[in-house]
Specification:
Number of strands: 8
Largest sheet: 8 strands, mixed
Distance between the termini: 33 Å
Order of helices and strands: HEEEEHEHEHEEH
CATH superfamily of one domain: Glutaredoxin
Radius of gyration: 19 Å
Strand order of the largest sheet: 1-8-7-4-5-6-2-3
Strand content: 15-25%
Low-confidence stretches: none
Number of helices: 5
Shape: globular
Structural class: alpha+beta
CATH architecture of one domain: 3-Layer(aba) Sandwich
Length: about 190
Amino acid sequence: MTRPAAEVDKEMDLIWDQIRDAQKRIAALRLEREPEPVQDYEVTTSNGAKVRLSALFGGKRDLILVHNMGRQCPMCTTWADGFNGVRQHLEDRAAFVVSSPDDPAVQQEFAASRGWTFRMVSTKDTTLAADLGFRDDKGRHWPGVSVLWKADDGRVVRVGLSSFGPGDEFSPVFNLLPMLKDGQGEWWPKFSY
């Protein structure tokens, strides 16, 4: 059933206002969140070097740590492709790293095939993903982000987190496709088209 465009647009404007208000409330709540201490895990860079989580901050106080499921997941690849395009903007304000359980050599090869320019680390053989809530008891990894902050004394704390899923705010793909005449339809991310 179709309705007059002006009627639908007016209703959508009202809903978008509610969504923006909710986003402002969420942003305010995130600022109230008590920081959680985070262990200074040892992870492996894509070139095989072992580094501490605290070293990933570089000269920044903030670190955006993306939890990616790795080469196996076309959805995670979609998010990472998008982050690649905004990496420089993000890194102007905070350090940015994508983590996955993949072996560093696999990460390096896959990143090169996608043209990714952001830093990657492997969490293989660590409990980082599990401890931060992005790997379950059965060893399955889940996508999302942890936002970390480094205190003056070097302690690392998590100040924000979110999971990723279709329709979230982290990939424009799932917000643009529903606008098509027939919506997203049967489309699903692929590694190549």
